[in-house]
Design goal:
Layout lengths: L2 E4 L2 E4 L6 H7 L18 E7 L6 H9 L8 E3 L9 E5 L3 H4 L10
GO molecular function: iron-sulfur cluster binding
Keywords: FAD, Flavoprotein
Pfam families: Fer2
């Protein structure tokens, strides 16, 4: 089972599960608004370490539309599937945004 490091927390993530769901299921404060469809860009994370799958054209287009650097360090957690150990930092949180998250993304 892959390990996801967020700050000083280590989470076990079910292999193949969307990163946004692993984070949310472990009580990590992460914003998401579009239900995991890579449309809103609010579930962004910075990948601090580890290996992640290549960015899809949809994810790339959403990040470009939002004016986010697309060098691979900033990713949409709704588009990343947990496959290996990684370290991430959520960039937008429910607490900071002051609103509740959108619909729970499907796995």
């Amino acid at each position: 089972m892959p390990t996801i490091v967020v700050g000083d927390k280590e989470l076990n993530g079910e292999e193949g599960k969307k990163l946004v769901l692993v984070l949310e299921d472990h009580g990590i404060d992460i914003m998401h608004m579009c239900g995991g469809h890579a449309q809103c860009g609010t579930c962004r994370v910075e990948v601090l370490g580890g290996s992640v799958e290549p960015m899809s054209p949809l994810e790339l287009r959403t990040l470009q539309t939002k004016g986010v650097a697309t060098d691979g360090h900033i990713r949409l957690s709704c588009q990343l599937r947990v496959k290996e150990d990684i370290a991430v930092q959520p960039l937008l949180t429910v607490h900071e945004m002051g609103v509740g998250p959108g619909p729970r993304p499907r796995d």
